[in-house]
Amino acid sequence: MLNMEHHWLPFTNNRLFREEPQIFARAEGVRYWTPEGQELLDASSGLFCCAAGHGRREIADAIHKQVLELDYTTHFQRAAPISFELAERLSGLLPEGLDRIFFGSSGSEAVDSAMKICLAYHRARGQGQRTRFVSRSWAYHGVNVGGTSLAGMVNNRRDFSGVTSDVVHMRHTWTEEQRFSRGEPETGVELAEDLEDICKTYGAETIAGVFVEPIAGSIGTVVPPKGYLKRLREIADKYGLLLIFDEVITGFGRTGSAFASQEFGVTPDIVTMAKALTNGTVPMSAVAVRTRIQKTIIDAAEGDRPEFFHGYTYSAHPVACAAALASLNIYRDEGLFERVKDFSPTFLDAVFGLRNLPHVADLRGYGMLAGIQLTPGEKPGLKGSIAQRLLFKEGLHIKATGDALIFAPSFTTTEDELAQMTDILRRVLVRGDL
Ligand SMILES: Cc1ncc(COP(=O)(O)O)c(C=O)c1O
pLDDT per residue over 107-140, tens digit each? Predict the structure, then answer.
């Protein structure tokens, strides 16, 4: 019998969990197994991490080899060859010009690092008064202090207002007219003008940068309206703001391109990434920065002091680097980003096939990422959490945020496995007890 008293689970109702534990003991491909042997299909790639499926031997072997060769080095005034190799590989995958890579261990660390890079950059070019950030309602940018300030979901902010800093929020991009839009909605581009209004209201010279998820993932997949990201780019350029795309979910193929920036044809100044970077095996994140941003910070530093007073004990951890390189090899060798592009119509057909189910209020999707919005229950979020538990019992693991289910299977999912997943959704989303 497991003693569940001591581990305080994150983003979990710990009391409810102990009454009805949902525990995974093993995983392979697109499947999990509980300790009792119940099999579940994984409709969310764990938490949008395991893009190439679970239990990949190539990654396990690379991790094993690296631990025995060089298990750890600090990267403060020291380095290991493998991190340079990984940084070069990443810069080859990113949009041109985003080729300076800073490493951390989580998406949250990447976001906070990116905020500090923005501040250091403006200071280095004599604009240290740019200390404010712009984000968006419904945004999720992790849970560190910076990311909590950027957050656009009230539950992620409410208890922590004492530490959050100065962030102004644009409106989210979902509108009633967009209901059941597949891909980029046709309407809503004018919502980008919120950025211009904020620049005029607060003074653009006080704003360091604007953070957006190209597709708002954690809230339940909100795809940007056509032209919206491009318009943000224009306004950011007009007012000297840095544009940061948080690609912690959309990075590494989820949209059918390596990064959503390429998919939507808009190049930001900074990209944050994590999750699928190591296929979820070892915690790792990265921030990709335009060459000129790093150069400005480096050139402004005096003497022999570090140019950027920031970094983590586990920045560029060699074992994480090995896991990342092995993951990138799988993505390349198996053509998995291309697979997403090819498979996306089949995936979205399956998702939009749920349209007429009684509990479905909206469907949204792009690439291999989709949101299933449930009709409101008695209280916000209640139906989502009941659905998640019923689906678990029926053999499907899926992430829920509030009343939205986030469907994002591994890129290796077969048509048959996809059909099994949607069958389970179909069985549960008609139930009277939901
Ligand atoms: C867009 C985005 N940014 C940041 C994060 C935080 O990442 P982590 O949980 O690894 O800190 C997430 C996690 O889901 C995310 O979706």
Answer: 999 999 999 999 999 999 999 999 999 999 999 9
Measure the CA–CA gap between 279 and 323, rounded to whole angstroms.
Answer: 8
| Ligand 1 atom nearest to 272, measured from its CA | 3
Nearest CA to ligand 1 atom 7: 107
User: What residue ranges line ligand 1, CB within 6 angstroms?
Assistant: 106-108, 111, 140-142, 213, 217-218, 246, 248-249, 274
Instruction: Indicate the pTM of the whole model.
Output: 0.98
Q: Do 346 and 326 share a domain, yes or no? A: no
Q: CB of 22 within 8 A of CB of 250?
A: no
Residue of 213, 249, 369 best suited for mutating to test ligand 1, as the one with most atoms within 8 Å of CB: 249
User: What is the secondary structure of 257-295 as a DSSP string?
Assistant: SSSHHHHHT---SEEEE-GGGGTTSS--EEEEEEHHHHH
User: How many domains does the chain fold into?
Assistant: 2
Q: What's the confidence (pLDDT) of residue 162?
A: 85
**Which regions of 65-150 does DSSP assign to beta strands (E)?**
98-104, 132-136
- Measure 249 CA to ligand 1 centroid, in angstroms: 7
Q: Residue 322 belongs to what domain range?
A: 60-333
Question: For a pocket test of ligand 1, which of 44, 247, 248 has the largest count of ligand atoms closer than 8 A to its C-beta?
Answer: 248
Q: Which atom of ligand 1 is nearest to the CA of 274?
A: 10
The CATH number linked to 115 is: 3.40.640.10
Q: State whether residue 417 is helix, strand or coil.
A: helix
391 neighbors 372 (Cβ within 8 angstroms): no
Judge if 142 and 245 occupy the same domain: yes
